[in-house]
Amino acid sequence: MRAALLTEYRKLVTTRLWWILLLCMAVYMAFLAAVLGWGITQGGGMAGPGPGGGEDDLVLAPDAVVRAVYTIAVTFGYVFPLLVGALAVASEFRHQTITPTLLAEPRRTLLLSAKLVSAGIVGLVYGIVGTLASVGAGAAVLTLLDQPTFLDQASTWRTIALSVLALALWAVVGVGFGSVLTNQVAVIVVVLAFTQFVEPVLRFVLALTSWGADVAAYLPGAAGEAVSGGSFYSETGVGSLLEWWQGALVLVAYGVGLAAIGRVTTFRRDIT
Amino acid sequence: MTTDGTIRVEHLSKSFGPVRAVDDLSFQVTPGRVTGFLGPNGAGKTTTLRMLLGLVRPTSGTATIGGLTYGQIHRPLRTVGAALEAASFHPGRTALDHLRLYTPQVGVPDTRAGEVLELVGLSAAARRRVGGFSLGMRQRLALATTLLGDPRVLLLDEPANGLDPEGIRWLRGFLRMLAAEGRTVLVSSHVLSEVEQTVDDVVIIARGRLAHASSLPDLARMARVRVRAVSPDAAGLATLVERASWTRTDAGDPRVAELWDVDAATVGAAAFAAGVELHELTSRDAGLEGLFLQLVGAVETAGVAA
């Protein structure tokens, strides 16, 4: 298993994909955190001069503000570790490297396990970079606006750590997804469509029904946000979330469950 | 090297839906020799190799290396080196990085990657991305990958594809050297002439079935010689052929005789003795390639009849 892990890790870091996606994620997250930090704190002020004037607008408690800003990567940036995980499998089929891969390690379950674990490790890097980009840019903007950053509070750092964990788990989900859907282009299209459109819409619609809110909490995006203990959506009142550990379990279940499906479909087939 | 490197394929069959890609195929490949695995495109060579490597599950029959299926071999890259397609590389990876992917699984230090590149003459391109490689360079890199674990069995699918004449000559010498070291070397090709100068044994398949398996000299002995004789005297030629009871095939012209199993000297001497004027007398050595096509053709027509 150690050898397989090292091999999988090397596969991930010897192409350019990982750092290009990582760079995109860092820039995008920093930008979103800065905009959101400014937007939420200044939203009330824009509507009117007094504190009463902003009541119809988005007004959050200061600690909720930082939670939403610092975990922006979990809400909008999880697509990056998800893609890295999914492409770790799909690109093997795209470039037919699955043949030498299986020649080096014919035990297919062990191979998939190594991919799940190694993606989790690389996912941690994405988690750290993505979260720190959000925290860095967010805190800088809040400081400039004379808003509290809450960086001196342990609970804030707990949120930050859980945000890293959530993003790492997203890479594991990616491997599971890529093992079910091995067409690289389809992977990218489905990941973008689901994460940016389908799930947000589903969550919004489900939140309108009495039974739907409970279901919505088990959607992968909501589970990821539950891990970091709060998000832009939940802080702004769109649906409720699970406990952090429940969210983590749900994400792991998505990753391992999809990988299990991939094991009995994609990885059971003849490699021709 | 603990296990014996003999490859055994026994009653191997594989169906893809209604297509029987490999059909009750049995043969054996011995260590210390280069064996040519021959057949036209679509004969089932690659499918057979993939079954041998555990990538494709046989419908029935077995394919083993040293008595074990590929999946049963511990650290398989140390026993078997296989190159199936020259395209199995990520274009964005350098040659060295590609090889270093597998060193942990082979269980050799990373420096081995540089060594095998040296062996195949690719050291200068070690840090270049594979995406910019020519087909010949990819073939060399694929070969280098198979050598990482210093395996006693090598399976190479069409390794000469894309190599220039110099590369082919180099490959020949290289394969001969590997076999001389006692390794089992199986090389597939769709043309016999490509491997004729390299192989000791041949396994010829067509339509997924065995057409012929023997040593190369034994195959060569099966090749029938043929002579083409042209004479303006059709009647004299006919008499000559009849008297010597040679096998003649109809060439569509009574003045042209295609004669089997006789050499030009014999025909020339007989014609001279009989006073038959000859305008042309050519040895038509169908050669191994002709024999190969004949063997393949025999299986293919049998397949149509069945």
Automatic annotation (TrEMBL), chain A:
Keywords: Membrane, Transmembrane, Transmembrane helix. It comes from the Bacteria. The chain crosses the membrane at residues 20-40, 68-90, 116-145, 157-178, 185-206, 244-262. This is ABC transporter permease. It comes from Cellulomonas terrae.
Automatic annotation (TrEMBL), chain B:
GO terms for molecular function: ATP binding; ATP hydrolysis activity. SMART domains: AAA. Belongs to the ABC transporter superfamily. InterPro entries: AAA+_ATPase, ABC_transporter-like_ATP-bd, ABC_transporter-like_CS, P-loop_NTPase. This is ABC transporter ATP-binding protein. Keywords: ATP-binding, Nucleotide-binding, Transport. Pfam families: ABC_tran (PF00005). It comes from Cellulomonas terrae. Residues 7-232 form the ABC transporter domain.
